Amino acid sequence: MLNKTLLIFLLLLQSDLAVSETLAVSKNKSDAIVLTFLGTGAPRPSFERYGPSILVEAGENKILVDAGSGMRERIFEVGGFPLLTSIDTFLITHLHFDHTISIPGLWLSGWLYGRRIPMNVYGPSGTEKMMEHMRKAYQWDIDYRGIVGVPLQGSKLTAQDLNAGEIIKVGSLKITAFAVEHMPVNIQSGKSLGLRGDTLGFRIDYKNRSVVFSGDTRSTDKSKLIEFGKDVDVLIHEVQVPSPGNSKEAKLANVSLSVHSTPEQTAYILSRTKPRLAVYSHIIPPGTTERQLIEATRPFYEGPLTVAHDFMKITISDEIDIETVERIGKQSFEDSNVLDD
Ligand SMILES: [Zn+2]
Q: What domains are there in the chain, each with its CATH number?
């Protein structure tokens, strides 16, 4: 009898716990922004750090910030065909190949395997032109697949150039584009080398949560990141560690220090913005270790800081949770159930 009473009490206790945990989770996380780091590297090939690309999910919204190499495969690893076919929005920080090379991969794969709405690409000036060229480059592929029976809805690629300061709404997300400093300059004088174009950072707000993407940028006291990153929940910042030595290769690698940020320079931005969490991603060179980056930053910045790795997942809510996303691995298209009847 005693045992039976105890058992009922324990069952009640367990079910109470289960309910209150579920309620707590849904209450706290319904406003969450979830970030999945698909690639945390830069132009240099790496098996550990694919090219820069971060999936942002908030409510029903799914947006990719940048489209680095291997992005399509990373999306497939974390979400199979349902994820591959459900993303229809890119935010592109600038037109360097390490940020754009996977746009056609997802645009066309997503369409081929089931997306039936256009792919939309937002980016700096020149984005519309680049997408027009991509459409032309793959028109034969689209015509071919259309003729053999792939529905043409979803094969469309639309683009919009964004100006700094422009705000766009995607669902209940508010996205603010701002200018960052990544255009080529004379290393000695700091003067522009005259190339036209823009590079952007983005701030995304959803309910009371916020995240800022630095884009590729050097860090100066004029950086717009200081304004747009102020008190943000999560600030994702690029970083470059100087290559040692005097080889021709090291010298070439270090040319880009004039348009990127060292850990010390990034610390300058972080100490002025004070995010709830700072995250390094777009790591140059990709073999730089977490320890190297933290040690190089710590003398200048003491706030919460982590180094992203591919498959890292950050959930921004009352708490900021960091975990590694589960990979669902290979999935058969035939069993994926992604096509409407
Ligand atoms: Zn880059």
A: 31-330 (3.60.15.10)
Prediction pTM value: 0.90
Give the bridge partners for 34, in sequence order: 57, 315
Ligand 1 being an ion, which residues bring their Cβ within 5 A of it?
42, 98, 216
* Each residue's pLDDT tens digit, 68-102: 999 999 999 999 999 999 999 999 999 999 999 99
Residue 49: which H helix or E strand, with range? none
CA 184, CA 188: separation in Å to the nearest integer?
12
With residue 57 as reference, give the H or E element that holds it: strand 53-58
Span 183-203, mean pLDDT? 89
- 118 alpha carbon to ligand 1 midpoint, in Å? 26
User: In angstroms, what is the span from residue 178 Cα to ligand 1's centroid?
Assistant: 17
Q: At what angle do helices 290-297 and 263-273 cross, to 10 degrees?
A: 60
DSSP, res 276? S
